[in-house]
Fold each of these.
Amino acid sequence: MNIIFLGPPGAGKGTQAVRVCERLGIPQISTGDILRRAIKEGTPTGLAAKAYIDRGDLVPDSVVIDIVRERLAQPDCQKGYILDGFPRTVAQAEALATFATIDKVVDINVDDQKLIDRLSGRRVCLACGGTYHVSQLNGSTKCERCGADLIQRDDDKAETVLSRLTVYHAQTAPLIDFYRERGLLVTVDGALPMDDCFAAILSVLGA
Ligand code: AP5
C-alpha cells in the first residue's frame, strides 16, 4: 500500500510512521529526515536546504520532488511505502501524481496549542532516529534504544515552531481538500495517546 501521512508539525507523523512501517514491512520516507541527513553530511542539497529549515520555511518544491522521485524508484518501495512529510504543497502533490499512485492519505489532526507543547518538549536521537518528549524521559538525556545523546532540533526552538505552524496552515493544509476531493483522505485524532492513535491508523488503513 502506498500511503501519505499528512498533518501539522508535531502531529506524530514520524512517531506513527515508524510503527506502521514496522507492522506493514514497508519503508518510511521522511523528507525531513533525508534533508537533515544531507545537512549533516554537508552535501549540496543539504547546504541549499539549511537556511529554509532553520527559518521554518519549506525547502523549494523542485528540490524535494527530485528527492522523492529518486527514492520511490528504489527496489524496497515496490511493495509500498509511507511518505512522511511529503507532499507539503499542492505543486508537490501534483508532481507526485505523475510518478506514483497513492492508495490512502492519513490526515493526523492535532490543535496548535498541543503541537507547540509537543515540539518544544521533543528530543531526538540523531544516531537511530528515536523521538521522545521530555515528559517521558525522567531527566535522562540518552536515547533508550541506542544510548546516544538526545538533542533538541534547531527548528523546535519556540520562534521557529510558530513559523512552521503558519507555513503549515498556509501551504500544506490545502492538501486536506485536495485529497478529500480525490476520495483518498482518512482522518485520525492525533491527540489520542500514542497507542490509541496507532490503533486508529491501522483501523483506517484496514491493516
Ligand atoms: P519534518 O521533519 O517533516 O518536520 P514536520 O512535518 O514539521 O514534522 P515533525 O517531524 O516536526 O513532526 P511529526 O508530525 O513527525 O511529529 P513527531 O512524531 O516527531 O520537516 C522539517 C523541515 O524540513 C520543514 O520545516 C521544511 O523546512 C523541510 N521539509 C521537509 N519536508 C519537506 C517538503 N516536502 N517540502 C518542503 N520542505 C520540507 O512527534 C512530535 C512530538 O510529539 C514528539 O516528542 C513525540 O514523542 C510526541 N508525540 C507524538 N505523538 C504523540 C501522542 N499521540 N501523544 C503524545 N505525544 C506525542
Amino acid sequence: MKINKSLTLTKPDDWHVHLRSGEMLAKVLRDTATSFNRAIVMPNLSPPIRTTYDAVSYQREIKAALNKDSDFTPLMTSYLTDETDPDDLIAGFKRGVFTAAKLYPAGATTNSDSGVTNTLLLDPVFSAMSNAGMPLLIHGEVVDHKIDIFDREHKFIELVLEPLRNRHKNLKIVFEHITTKSAVDYVRSSSPDKLAATITPHHLSVNRSDLFAGGIRPHLYCLPIPKREEHRIALVDAACSGDKRFFLGTDSAPHLIEEKESSCGCAGVYNSPNALLTYIAIFEQNNALDKLNSFASLNGPEFYNLKPNNKEIEFVKRSSPMSFDDLQVGSSRVKTFVPPFPLFWSAK
Ligand code: DOR
Ligand code: ZN
C-alpha cells in the first residue's frame, strides 16, 4: 500500500451488505460494485433466501442488474430458519452457490421473523456446516425485550454465542457488525481461524448520543444500535490494530425515506456510496492508514479461505470535502449516511 496525498489499496470486498431486490437492487448495486470486488449478500429479503434454489435465482437477479463490464461477484448466503435442511445447505455450499449461512435470531431485526427461535434446534445444521468448513454469520443480539436494547449484544455472547461455540468448537463464525467492547474482547480472546468480526463505517463513526443530537436522527438508527463512546473507541482500536480477526463489512442497508422518517422507523443505514471514504477517514484520524489494507482487503479473504483481489483502487486527498446526494428510487429516496466529520478522500 502506498500512502502520500494518494492512497492505493488492494481492491476491497464488502463482507456484509444488503442489496435488496427489484428496483432498489438496481439502484444500490452500482455503489457496491464500484467500491468492492466481491460482497457477502445478506439473505433477509421478503421472503428470505433460504434454499440453494432461492440463492441461484437471487444471484442471477443481481448479476443481471450489473453493468455489462462489471466483474463484481455477489457471494450468496442462506437465511437459517428452524426448518433449514442441512443437506440442501451443504450441497449448495459444495456447489459454490452459498459462501456462508446467516443466523438471525427470530425478531432481532429487519425481516428476521422467519429466523431461528432457538439455536439448539439447529445443532445438526451447525455440525454439518462445521464438517464442511462452511462459515456461520451471526446477528449477535438476544431478542428478549426485557433485556435493555443497549445490552442485547453483550448478553448474546454469554447466553448464546459462547454455549454455541462450546458445542461446535470447529465451526467458523463471523460475529457480524459488532458494536461493543465486550464483543471486541471476546473476538480477541479466540482463535483467528474460528472467530472473526465485521465492523461497519457507521459504528466506527457514531455513538448513541449522535442518534439524539439536537433531535431524533432516524437515518442513524440501525441494529445493533450504536452504543456509548467507550464502545465506539474499542471498535476503532480493533479495526485500526491490523488484527486479522477484524475486517470490513458495511452493513449498508437501504430503506426508503418514508420507512425511516416514520412513527416506527426501520433499522438500517445506507452507506455504500461513502463507506470506503469513511473507513479511510477513521484510519487517518487514528494514524493507522498503514493498517487499512489489512482490514479492508486482506483479513476478510483470509478468513473465508479466498485469495485477495489482484486489482487495486486508488484514492486522492482533496482540499474540499466530498458531498453525497440521496439516491432516487422510484418516486422516493434513500438517504446516504453522513458521518459527523468531513470526508476529504475520494476514489481516483
Ligand atoms: O440496521 C439493520 N438493518 N440491521 C440489520 O441487522 C438488518 C438491516 C436491514 O436489513 O435493514
Ligand atoms: Zn446486516
